[in-house]
Amino acid sequence: MHDKVENLPSINNLYNESKVTPPDKDQLIVELTSTLSIIPGSLDSVFLRKNSNGDTEQSLRNTIQAYNLTGDGGFDFILIDCPPTYSSYTISAALASDFYIILSNPMHILLWGLIYLAK
């Protein structure tokens, strides 16, 4: 069963440390309809470890640019949902984004996290 899950398209395929080049689009993107596609999530990507050269954090942005997923012939919008943690995956999503929507309960401790994330 685990082998079948590993072969499915997933965001985790983007962060596979053994790959030097971005994975093929069919290893990432699932076309649901002619106007809606998704990159399925994976809990494995939440627990990514940072590497020293920052490649992990840049990989999502680099892949969006490499496959020309925005602009002419690309997607009008790319929505990236990520966990409310300070992780490589969340940093990667922030670096790949032009705009952010951060949902948060108005609690004092959560505001510290938002300030830390903004820095």
Question: Please, could you describe this protein's structure?
Answer:
The chain has helices spanning 2-6, 43-46, 55-66, 88-95, 108-118; strands spanning 30-33, 36-38. The chain has five helices and two strands. β1 and β2 (36-38) form a beta hairpin. It has a two-stranded antiparallel ribbon with strand order 1-2. It has one domain. It is mainly alpha-helical and 119 residues long.
Question: In short, what is this structure?
Answer:
The protein is mainly α and 119 residues long. It has helices at residues 2-6, 43-46, 55-66, 88-95, 108-118; strands spanning 30-33, 36-38.
What does the secondary structure layout of this molecule look like, with pairings?
Layout: H1 2-6, E1 30-33, E2 36-38, H2 43-46, H3 55-66, H4 88-95, H5 108-118
Helix pairs in contact: 3-4
Q: Which strand order spans the largest sheet, edge to edge or round the barrel?
A: 1-2
Question: From the alpha-carbon coordinates, what is the Rg to the nearest angstrom?
Answer: 15 Å
The amount of helix comes to: 25-40%
Major sheet summary line: 2 strands, antiparallel
State the shape: globular
Total domain modules:
1
Q: Work out the oligomeric state of the chains in this entry.
A: single chain
Mean pLDDT: 77
Say how many strands there are: 2
Strand residues, percent: 5-15%
| H-E string | HEEHHHH
Protein structure class: mainly alpha
First-last Cα distance: 41 Å
DSSP helix count? 5
Poorly predicted parts: none
